Amino acid sequence: MRLVLGIESSCDETAAAVVAEDRRILSNIVLSQLEDHRAYGGVVPEIAARAHLDHIERVVSEAMATAGVGFADLAGVAATTGPGLIGGVIVGATVGKSVALVHDKPFIAINHLEGHALTCRLTDDVPFPFLLLLVSGGHSQFLSVTGVGQYRRLGGTIDDAVGEAFDKTAKMLGLGFPGGPAVEQAALSGDAARFALPRPLLGRPGTDLSLSGLKTAVRLAAEKLPAPVSAQDLSDLAASFQAAVGDLLADRLKHALADFLAEHPNGKHVVIAGGVAANKALRARLQTTVATAGLELVAPPLKLCTDNGAMIAWAGLERLRRGESHGFDAPCRPRWPLDAAA
After folding, report:
1. Residue whose C-alpha is closest to residue 178's, from 5, 305, 327, 40
2. Residue 309's CB: how many other CB atoms inside 10 A?
3. What's the rounded Cα separation, in Å, for the pair 4 and 18?
4. What is the sign, positive or negative, of the torsion defined by CA atoms of 12, 15, 20, 22?
5. Contact criterion met (CB below 8 Å) for 128 and 271
6. Phi, psi dihedral angles at 197 (to 5 degrees)
7. Partners of residue 209 on adjacent β-strands
8. Residue 145 to residue 306: CA distance in whole angstroms
9. pLDDT tens digits, residue range 101-115?
10. Sign of the C-alpha dihedral, residues 264, 201, 224, 167?
11. What's the whole-number average pLDDT of the chain?
């Protein structure tokens, strides 16, 4: 039974995990840096890189100890080598390469986005092909996934990513950081019908997304609120924003489904992955769209939606089973699209 150590450090989580080939997660240690960045209202790359450097050895050691294995028991070491904040990526990749070199193990360089994309095969054993909606702080795109390393981009955001729009909306409304959970929490007690916010590109052909106009509309609506702004005002605006995003994603998903099924008529699964996939309201909205099309929606458990080492370890296992590994000169990349042709 092959075991792989996975290391993730592309943004503000220092993470390491050991995963077995039979899909058991033996350990999954995630150290959040939220308190380091909260005062700035967002992730500061230099602070993130230094925090990774301070804590990564301890996180890796804890992952190995929790799994109850030694480095000699590993079949390989996988680490995120992009995309992401390059300082943090370099820290995690260097540690992964060092462990692999010292213990004479294969090193697998993992695309962070592929880690998210393949998590559904770790948790639910989803077969290929499937339609993937990848939504996070920096990425929002629809992809047809036909195998490991086989991704075709059907469409995506032409401006802000969904997670970025949530973060900026939370900042404008003074809801705190991180923005996604803050907006979702505020929206629970809000009236989603109070504010008539726009749905950019709704009903138009294609699968591209646009969120900058929606974000601007939220700012203008917030500026028109009478002082003092009440908690209910903020909840109503957060709920209206979240509903608009749900409508946009559902509409674009219908178009992506048509494209996907035209090419793969036997496809049965739609997968939503990335940090925004943890939003329960958006999950429910998309569930309705997917069920109407006769397919099954798969989303990872909430703890595996955000960045973690288990997804990197599993992606490493997927690659290792195909006989793939990489040299210690594997580059670290701030940008690394899943579909290079796009």
Report:
1. 40
2. 33
3. 6
4. negative
5. no
6. -85, 150
7. 157
8. 20
9. 999 999 999 999 999
10. positive
11. 96
Question: 333, exposed or middle or buried, with CB in 10 Å at 0-12, 13-18, 19+?
Answer: middle
Token reading at 315: 């992606």
- Torsion from C-alpha of 176, 180, 181, 186, nearest 10 degrees: 70
Q: Give the amino acid at 336.
A: W
To which residue do tokens 């309201």 refer?
A: 281
Q: Is the peptide bond before 205 cis (omega within 30 degrees of 0)?
A: no
Look at residues 43, 21, 19, 23 and name the one whose alpha carbon lies nearest to residue 33: 43
Please tell me the distance from the alpha carbon of residue 109 to that of residue 130, in angstroms, as a whole number: 23
What average pLDDT does range 252-281 have in this prediction? Answer: 96
**How many CB atoms are closer than 10 A to CB 125?**
9
pTM of the model as a whole? 0.96
Give the 3-state secondary structure percentages of the chain, helix then strand then coil, rounded to 5. 45, 20, 35
Give the separation between CA 278 and CA 296, rounded to whole angstroms. 17
Burial of 36 (0-12, 13-18, 19+ CB in 10 A): middle
**Gyration radius of the chain over CA positions:** 20
Contact 141, 162 (CB under 8 A): no
- CB 68, CB 98: distance < 8 Å: no
Q: How far is CA 135 from CA 59, 100, 140, 235, 250, in A?
A: 26, 31, 4, 23, 13
What per-residue confidence (pLDDT) applies to 136?
87
Q: For residues 273 and 279, is the Cβ–Cβ distance under 8 A?
A: no
With CA atoms as reference, report the closest residue to 8 among 69, 104, 83.
Answer: 83
